[in-house]
Amino acid sequence: MTAIANASTARQRTKGETAIRLVVLTIAALLLFAPFLFQDVRSLEVAAKLCIFIVLVASYDLLIGYTGIVSFAHTMFFGFGAYGVAIFLKQWGAGWDAIFVGSLAGIAVSLAVAVVIGLLSLRVKAIFFAMITLAAASVVLVLASQLSDFTGGEDGMTFRTPSLFKTATKLLVDEDNKVVRLFGVKLNGKLAAYYFVFLSCLTLFVLMLRLVGSPLGTVLKSIRENEARAEAIGYRVVAYRTFVFCAAAVAASLAGSIYAVWLKYTGPDTTLSFSIMIDILLMVVIGGMGTMWGAVIGAVLLVMAQYYLRDLMGVAAETTANLPLIPDILNPDRWLFWLGIIFILLVYFFPAGIAGSIMKRGAPRATSE
Amino acid sequence: MEKLVNTIERLGGVNLLPVALAVVAFVLIGNPSSWVTLTVAGLAMGMMIFLMASGLSLVFGLMNVLNFGHSAFVSFGAFVAASVLAGLSGWLSGDSIMLGALALFLAVSAALLFGLIAGWFFETVIIRPVYEDHLRQILITMGALIVSEQIILAVWGGTPTAVPRPDFLEGALIIGDISIEIYRIFAFALGLVVYIALYAVLNRTRIGLLIRAGVESREMVEALGFRIDRLFIGVFMLGSALAAVGGAMWAGYETLISPALGGEIMIIVFIVVIIGGLGSIEGTLLGAIMVGLVGNYVGFLAPKLALASNMLLMMAILMWRPSGLRPAVK
Amino acid sequence: MSLLSISAMQTSIGQYAILHDVTLEVPEGGVFVLLGRNGAGKTTTLRSIMGLWRPSPGSVRLRGQDITGMHTADIARKGIAYVPENMGIFGGLTVAENMVLATSKGQFDAARLKRVHSLFPALEQFWTKQAWSLSGGQKQMLSVARAIIEPRDLILIDEPTKGLAPAIINAMAEAFREIAESTTILLVEQNFNFARSLGRDMAVIDDGRIAHTGPMDAFAADAALQDRLLGLS
Predict the structure, then answer these.
(1) Is the minimum CB–CB distance between A320 and chain B shorter than 8 Å?
(2) pTM of the predicted model as reported, rounded to 2 decimal places
(3) Fewer CB within 10 Å: C terminus or N terminus of chain B?
(4) Which residues in A lie closer than 8 A to residue B143 (C-beta atoms)?
(5) Are B143 and A127 an interchain contact pair (Cβ–Cβ within 8 Å)?
(6) What is the pLDDT of residues A188-240, one digit of tens each?
(7) According to DSSP H, which parts of C102-188 are helical?
(8) Which ipTM score applies to this complex?
(9) C225: closest CA of chain B, how far (Å)
(10) Which domain range does residue A271 map to?
(11) Would you identify the CATH topology of the domain C4-230?
């Protein structure tokens, strides 16, 4: 049965879908070889951030794309994971045990909070849920910046990670006890840290892909399409939604733990802030909700834009410096203004996002709306 | 026990919650003059929050539209009023109460006018295309909020803006050892006037009747021959204007405002409408007063808990009454 | 000319087609009964006439005027009143407020108000009470009363006897008979005895199509036809 279904979906795969898959595979390959292809510090930062945000956005897509519920608490779970690792690394010193226990603690807190919020508000309207998650996330943000003895407050906390990830660590040495270079890249701890990030994120992403490809994914889609009917067929909608909410929370929490290990720093601005929540929302909508591939594309586009578009806008602002208001709007700090407008236009005209819209292209049968 | 429940119900039921809260706080605070100061501050804050939240609640009740961009009206109201007051600062510091009052009136009117126009634009351009589609509604209004915040940053800059206020609203009334800021009395009075006016419109006029009926069942009001969508844009504009006025009042209260204001207010406003129950202005007033009082009392008793207190209040009330204290009948 | 003529009406809700082909002529005066099994499309037919669902294609004409695709409010102003299955009472409003909403100008015509009060004395008794506190039968009376407080050409009534006690059903039948003397009622009913006592003409809808139409007397006499169209097949 499953085999037949797979075969038929494979036959029906549109040109657009193939294109999207190719793009995603290319991105994956670029990320895999990133340290060798782009040999500067900033590029490696961008690549690592990409890996983590792909997971974060994909986990958010689980929620918004596969169940149609909007949560504004995703950075909260991201933060739980990051703070869990940070606190344990700070208390216990740099060790794998601290990373492990810290991640688990983050997951535990995320799960507990997700279950409470889910049971309290998933029964009611989607809008209620959005409001309550927003309120919960803001309270956690405030708590994190106020309980400074515990969380480092506004400044956050820096900590040391296992010595394997130190830039000074030599993974391979030659006869002169110098670090071995492969294609000109030093095989040092930074490289190890990057591949730790890459592989962990890849694992998480593949797990999520499996989840949406499983029968559970089908159930989720049917709930999204028609809640009343799914309920009538006998699916326990609240239970499924709470489960997905929990799964998304755990994935986000793990992404937060990985991010903390990579940055060797955790603070409100890197994990909990509302602007990250906005970024996630923009990424998932621009990329395309409910596809998983869209998460990859959205995250790549926005992270790249964050790092590089701002430079471009800076140049544009300088060249228009003599005009009124325009340089203010073109100011690199105003890049969210443009993203916001693109976002609104996308939701109006291409609610399926980039991936979703391209995937519909070249469909064997005309899909009518 | 049942007798007690009946007595409470007759005295006003859930409307007594703020009174109960005040009594408990009195015992915990133990110092009458601090208690009076905090209570007045809480009521004033509650009234300003009511102004900001009432529109959101009605708009949701009437059309099932939740505007995540609502707090943008609050921010714009605050900054527009601040600009007007700054431009007329000569009138504020003079001896003439008349000129000061006129400046204040102009500032609030500017906010109100801005709210009306922005509300009209928001409803027709942003929200109308996505009626009935909650997911896109949340996303689009969120996008509009992002853009609005960026516009505020571009126009007024990221640094905090000082808000001058008229001399006659500065200072405090001293009665014995109790001191009450005059601005708080003013904020409370204005909020009360707006509430009474809204209440009168909703309960004494035909349009109010249509709104109340529309909150319950839009379809049935239409089946009786009335166009709710035409009514709705009016309600939306009014709600936006009230939010802008609330923002203007808030600016004068804080005296220093930054673009982050909208985000902070948004959370409080959401908590208020959830506590109060969506769709009823009585519920919104109740929720706003509760949030104002709890914020001030807890801020005094346990400052670290102050910001989480509203969240805890909301969770407690949701567990007790999942649709809020006084929701509209649906 | 018929008062209401529906031709080839099709209505879909989301992706589900509910009405496939409803063609119906409702003559002026009296009670026209629309019968059918659960889920056959009776309520959808009424809602489509009222413009609460958008039929496409197909057309609905009132006295020859095309009202298809008009806004519900405008259809109501053309002279059609709607008494939905859930009665559509505004619970937070008083009985009086519910009634005044149903008037087009916000004022009662004294004669009509008197007639409503004499038809449904309970409403006068609870005039200032909030409507949620009424009993089920009283709510149904209020809903019907709203429909007749203004002169209307056609009143659509959806299963008014559902969940009501037999005594109240009798009173309701009395009221309908009197109302039908001056206006036309299109009545959707499951309760066949109630429908038979009132209806002059009737139609049966089955799976989104009109399966039979004709005088009520003939249908009531034909047990085999009843069994085929309404029985639990």
Answers:
(1) no
(2) 0.83
(3) N
(4) 340-341, 343-344, 347
(5) no
(6) 778 888 999 999 999 999 999 999 888 888 888 777 777 767 666 666 777 88
(7) 110-119, 121-125, 136-148, 166-180
(8) 0.91
(9) 35
(10) 2-360
(11) Rossmann fold (3.40.50)
